[in-house]
Write a structure and sequence with these properties.
By secondary structure, this protein is of the alpha/beta class. Helices cover about 50% and strands about 20% of the residues. Strand 1, helix 1 and strand 2 form a beta-alpha-beta unit.
Length: about 150
């Protein structure tokens, strides 16, 4: 199976693990020539907060792709991809994290999804849920989990 498209899904908790995420994606996308779709998924509340910080005109239409491309985590990752010569595009989506990542993986025809997360106990996953777990169970392709410290 050739890797043509890698979906790297980032969210609000990934700012502290951008180096690990970039390295995991570059290590695969670089040698295979895969295109990376860098997606930032926002809940409605997160999106409204980011939009207010970015000083958008509230009367105008706001494009989630543009908001995602201006987000600090995405800018850091795109800088790493530029430096490594990895081709990428940026997508922004508003919705529930896990479900929206799976939808986007289907939409872009992802051959691999990369998500970040932190170590949790089994009880912690049961009580609080886990975006990464939802993606791993429902994605249409293999999922690489990049654990933060």
């Amino acid at each position: 199976m050739a890797l043509e498209t890698i979906l790297l899904a980032v969210g609000p908790g990934d700012a502290d693990r951008t180096e690990e995420l970039a390295r995991a994606v570059i290590d695969v996308a670089g040698p295979t020539g895969a295109n990376v779709v860098l997606a930032h998924v926002f809940t409605d509340e997160e999106f409204d907060g980011v939009v207010s910080q970015l000083d958008y005109d509230p009367a105008g239409e706001i494009d989630p792709d543009e908001v995602a491309s201006r987000h600090a985590t995405v800018r850091h990752l795109t800088g790493d991809f530029d430096e490594a010569g990895v081709e990428y595009s940026v997508r922004g989506r508003v919705g529930e994290h896990g479900e929206t990542i799976v939808e986007l993986a289907n939409e872009v025809g992802a051959d691999r999804v990369v998500v970040g997360g932190r170590k949790r106990s089994p009880a912690g996953k049961a009580v609080f849920g886990s975006t990464a777990q939802e993606v791993m169970l429902n994605a249409p392709c293999p999922v690489t989990f990049v654990r933060g410290d």
